Amino acid sequence: MTQMHRRGSTALSALLAAVLLWLPLPAGATAARAPEPPPSLTLPTQVLVVGGTPAAIAAAIAAARHGLRVQLVCDKPYLGGLLTGAMMDQWDLNKAPDGAPIEGGIFREIYNRLGEAFEPQTAEAVFLDMVQAYPAITLHMMTAPVAVKVTGMALDRRVRQVTFVDERYDERFAIDAGTVIDATDDADLAAMSGARYDVGRQDTGLDTKMQAATLMFAVVGVDWHEAARSYDEGRYGFGGVTEKKIWGYTKLMRAYQPLSAQVAVRDLNLGREPDGRVTINAVDITGIDGRKPSSLEEGMEIGRAEAHHLTHFLRRRVPGFQHARVAAFADELYIRETRHVLGLTTLTANDIWHGSVPYDTIGLASYPLDLHPSYVGEQPAYAPVRHIYGVPFRAMVPYGFDNLLVAGPAISATHVAAGSARIIPTTIEEGEAAGAAAAVSLRHGVDFARMAYEEEWMRRLRSSLARAGAVVDIARR
To answer: What is the DSSP string of 179-220?
Structure first.
């Protein structure tokens, strides 16, 4: 944020200038800055979806299926978010305690096309194919928001226009939208619009530390069948083996000494790709702020060095890894947590632990409260058990906004609750619900805040989701 500095001729004026520097701007205000060039083009649309994440894709498809015109804007050269850029090649799933699936809708369509584990390139192709199947969706790649026009008073604000820069051509254009869905992982657009938020574990009153980030990497030279056959819970600790996944090794990793003081490795999650490569999700890097490019680069450097160090350790300790060597790194870090936008309600650990299913549930979830450490040495605080709970629509509505929704890890949730709600299948549910909610809002002239509080509108939204195959009620899973 740019501020104006004024020179005063007295001590009082200097003090006043210092105070003004730190005062927050009123909602909708902008700081004085050099004038920016106007956009060369303004595009009207019914639904603006910002983000190339799975949640954004689900939101755009859901809106298009309801007959709406959609502008989908992605700041990367590929779709898929963490599934493509961060090499997340397998799912963290929401399941019933007996292992039965509890999700349907667009998530189930994606899962059926990708399977249990997949190559990032396959995910990228599938997402692009799904989006391009709808002529009502206009896709913009490598395009980022740079300015937002917000109107209204503090408790009744609307996002009227968003200005973007297409980085390929260095061109600016604006989009006027009836409804706006922020499906970025960090709620970038909501923050730019003036929405209130916490960072990391700020709600605890301790500090703003965030869950660790991870750099995933791939190795070659692994004998997968030997590794799978040799997994012994008595030796390695609780874990599991499937045709494409091995997870666990908690006892083994107690002997691992990280190269960096910022790194913790509690266990291993291994994925087998069709070409024989094995991906490793293990290196937790603390102290990384996913909102800052310099911090992200620092995390990448730490992760690359640690990957080689860890691979050397595995060559000596894990059967099948004797000839393993690092072959590739993810293009970006797996960021688990940055902002938590203040919504009309906040999802809490208590809601999850006790299986709350509120009236405005838009999808079911059950992933354990899986908090990766915010500092080296932090121990897990919750048992890895599942409780089925409902994701509330109110947590997707930023406080004080009428036409803006958030779908992704940055919904209104506490730091602890985000340990469960952050996973991609849950964010896909949120994206689908956001697209369906946009249709209800535009067709009936009801804003999202009113929709969230009035059961009549929530019944319409939930019925619409259920007809599309989503699971919004435990009795019908």
So the answer is: EEEE-STT-HHHHHTT--EEETTGGGTS----PPEE--EEEE
Provide the whole-model pTM.
0.90
Q: Are residues 139 and 193 in the same domain?
A: yes
Q: What is the pLDDT of residue 432?
A: 98
Residue 435's nearest CA partner among 138, 53, 51, 55 is 55
Identify whether 4 is part of a domain. no
- Higher pLDDT pick, 386 / 20: 386
Q: Are residues 108 and 182 in the same domain?
A: yes
To which residue do tokens 């989006």 refer?
131
Look at residue 23 and tell me if it is in a domain: no
Residue 334 in 3-state DSSP? strand
Give me the number of domains the chain comprises: 2
Q: What are phi and psi of 166, to 5 degrees?
A: -80, 110
C-alpha Rg value of the chain to the nearest Å:
23
* Structure-block tokens of residue 99: 């292992």
Contact 347, 417 (CB under 8 A): yes
pLDDT at 117: 85
pLDDT digits (tens, 9 = 90+) for 188-228: 999 999 999 999 999 999 999 999 999 999 999 999 999 99
Identify the domain containing residue 151 by its residue range. 42-201+338-476
CATH of the domain at 427: 3.50.50.60
